[in-house]
Amino acid sequence: MENNFKNATKTAEFFSYPECSLAYDLLIKYEYPWQALANISEFILEIGAGLGDEYEKRGENIWIYKDAKIAQSAYINGPCIIDKGAEIRHCAFIRGNAIVGKNAVVGNSTELKNCILFDNVQVPHYNYVGDSILGYKSHMGAGSITSNVKSDKTLVTINTGNGRIETGLKKLGAILGDYVEVGCSSVLNPGTIVGSHSCIYPLSSVRGYVSKNSIYKAKDDIVQKN
Q1: Measured between alpha carbons, how far is residue 144 from residues 5, 72, 203 in Å?
Q2: Chain Cα centroid distance, residue 70
Q3: Measured torsion, CA atoms of residues 124, 129, 134, 140, in degrees rounded to the nearest 10
Q4: What pLDDT score does 10 carry?
Q5: What is the tally of structural domains in the chain?
Q6: What are phi and psi of 40, to 5 degrees?
Q7: Are 146 and 157 in contact (CB under 8 A)?
Q8: pLDDT tens digits, residue range 211-220?
Q9: Which of 69, 137, 197, 208 is at a distance of 20 to 30 A from 58, taking alpha carbons?
């Protein structure tokens, strides 16, 4: 049983790596995806200067693909990479240590900090994404957030339902697999893990592990998709 619940949370279970080429070399180094969070900054600095002429260096340790749409009111702090076709909208706040994938949308008043957004991710309206990884085409509805620090400030553990995994991290938001849909005004509590192709109902408070292909209606009402 122990091996089964730990295997379900391994990096290979969550993401289609070709869909996030910039983060591929970082993520494949780690057995579990949250282990990559501590090294996002170092990784960006390592690859930034070699990204090629398609990217412009705009400020200290900030690389932005030339066709990316950046609102004048957006604030971007490095280290940061914004990839091809991405859109950073009005008053977005990127605090640094962020990789924004191809065609991703970072919306009005959305805040990013120490995170990876795979290609085609959408966090378009009043979202907070901190110390988190969002898989290919995942989407967070308006006002949904990742809560990345426990109220008692202790280290984050992941409760899979069949056992607990110690992360050793004080800050860990959420890991969303590919094609995850998070409903409006939901809170993903520290250490939330959501498997690919799952849906979270609006106004949910989610904690622990949600297996892939699930519909999360409430803590005690999680069903598998047909």
Answers
A1: 27, 24, 8
A2: 20
A3: -40
A4: 86
A5: 1
A6: -60, -45
A7: no
A8: 999 999 999 9
A9: 137
Which are the contacts of 49, defined by CB distance < 8 A and separation ≥ 6? none
Sign of CA dihedral 193, 47, 126, 88: negative
Q: Residue holding tokens 């109902």?
A: 201
d(CA 203, CA 181): 13
Domain that holds residue 68: 2-224
What is Dmax (Cα atoms) for the chain?
52
Helix residue ranges, H only, the chain: 2-7, 21-27, 40-48
Does residue 64 surpass a pLDDT of 70?
yes
Q: Which one has a higher pLDDT value, 94 or 10?
A: 94
Question: Does residue 184 carry a pLDDT above 50?
Answer: yes
For the entire predicted model, the pTM comes to: 0.94
CATH number reported for the structural domain that contains residue 166 in this entry: 2.160.10.10
Place of tokens 């085609």: 120
Helix (H, G, I), strand (E, B) or coil at 7: helix
Q: In which element (H, E) is residue 39 found?
A: none
Query: For residue 191, what are its two tokens?
Result: 């250490």
